[in-house]
Design a protein that fits this description.
binds manganese (II) ion, Aminopeptidase, binds (2S)-amino(hydroxy)ethanoic acid, Alpha-Beta Plaits, about 35% helix
């Protein structure tokens, strides 16, 4: 595309990102959790914008929003592109939103410059990917790829005890909801543009990441139950201290992960202490585990060893353990043909690129087993993400948009 067109597209993209970033709860960064007011406003904003971009808008029962550019051969499989609209708490304005906004601009540019595509192109704003409000993740793409059928909503509750079902009924969409539970079997390929959320591209001064694979991920909720007791009158050797036990377990987690070495990573991001009172020995502690690796066997082996050590600790300390699996996604290789096509596009556009593994989970990993799937990364400043400091420059955002547009042209025209 010539310079003025690139500038115009970049401007549209930046405006969309700014407008989306304004749909947030109060506090630092962007907080747009599933089925909240700000989530609904953002999805309705996107519906309206997609109409303005000349796309046919549909919405499914969980609140995935689609914008369709109909192809001349409607019987052919659809080329889908997009990402998730939800964020983590106090996250950034690019994670997820960039993939949606860029896809919208790309479809509008393709229609303007090349007219109607042969194959239908569709942008999707998945309702949820992060798992930040409810103990379930990929709620949007999980319906599209038949990982979920919606029955999970009744038993899933957020920290305030609100069920996913009730939240969905209250904040989902009233108008224009398509039939069915969102499963799609007409997707011929899925391409997701996303910020890297890591430091490799910046450190190696590379414009584009061509993702070869996405790590597998296991998330757990761990409950340690001991005995609440008086902090002053209970001798140290007569305690069943749930917090001291959890601290030992988290120390073991970090040590085992460092010993296992890259690419394994393990994190505990959430911890609750009950009764959380200075002069009471904690009776119960809940903490999360998020463990990732590109090899499923290594992930399985690491978790098995970790939990057997945890049960030893409970025996030594006279506490009990309850481990609830929350998420288990398999490592997902990207489609080699599409990745090679992306490398060729980078060379044709004179962009520096490198192939890489994604340490972050993405909606793309749910599509990989179902259809040819590809991911494109652009740099994150200082590798920071899931933070108000998340930032990617307009030039870097534009580079990703150009590669995505060329990929969609190749797939649909
Ligand atoms: O946690 C992740 O990897 C992604 O940002 N959901
Ligand atoms: Mn994220
Ligand atoms: Mn993301």
């Amino acid at each position: 595309m010539n310079d003025s067109r690139v500038q115009a597209s970049t401007q549209k993209l930046l405006e969309l990102l700014e407008e989306l970033g304004a749909y947030t709860a109060s506090g630092p960064g962007v907080t747009r959790l599933l089925y909240t007011k700000e989530w609904r406003q953002a999805q309705i904003f996107l519906q309206q914008k997609m109409v303005g971009f000349g796309l046919k808008v549909t919405t499914d029962k969980v609140g995935n929003v689609y914008g369709r550019l109909c192809g001349r051969s409607p019987e052919e499989m659809v080329i889908l592109t997009g990402s998730h609209i939800d964020t983590v708490v106090n996250g950034g304005k690019y994670d997820g939103a960039y993939g949606i906004a860029a896809a919208m601009v790309a479809l509008q540019d393709l229609q303007m410059n090349y007219g109607q595509p042969k194959r239908t192109l569709e942008v999707v704003s998945f309702c949820e990917e992060e798992g930040s409000r409810f103990p379930i993740a990929y709620w949007g793409s999980g319906h599209v790829t038949e990982r979920y059928d919606g029955s999970e909503a009744a038993t899933c509750k957020d920290a305030d005890g609100i069920s996913l079902q009730a939240a969905m009924e209250e904040f989902s969409f009233l108008q224009g909801v398509t039939e069915g539970n969102g499963a799609r079997n007409d997707i011929g390929a899925f391409v997701e543009l996303h910020i890297e959320q890591g430091i490799i591209l910046e450190k190696t001064d590379t414009q584009i990441g061509v993702v070869q694979g996405i790590v597998g991920q296991r998330r757990y909720m761990v409950k340690v139950s001991g005995a609440a007791n008086h902090a002053g009158t209970t001798p140290m050797l007569m305690r069943q201290d749930a917090l001291a036990s959890a601290v030992e377990m988290l120390y073991v987690l970090e040590g085992a992960a460092k010993l296992a070495g890259e690419p394994l990573v393990a994190t505990s991001g959430k911890l609750e202490v009950h009764p959380n009172t200075p002069n009471v020995i904690p009776g119960e502690v809940l903490f999360t585990l998020d463990i990732r690796h590109i090899e499923e066997d290594d992930l399985e082996c690491f978790c098995a060893k970790l939990f057997s050590r945890y049960y030893e600790i409970t025996a030594e300390r006279g506490v009990t353990l309850e481990v609830t699996p929350v998420l288990h996604t398999l490592p997902a290789p990207m489609d080699t043909k599409l990745s090679t096509a992306l490398e060729n596009i980078c060379r044709q556009q004179g962009k520096t690129y490198r192939t890489m593994v994604s340490g972050a989970g993405h909606d793309a990993q749910l599509f990989a087993p179902r259809c040819p799937t590809a991911m494109i990364f652009v740099p994150s400043r200082s590798g920071i993400s899931h933070s108000p400091e998340e930032y990617t420059s307009p030039k870097q955002l534009a580079a990703g948009l150009e590669v995505l547009t060329a990929m969609l042209y190749e797939l649909a025209y």
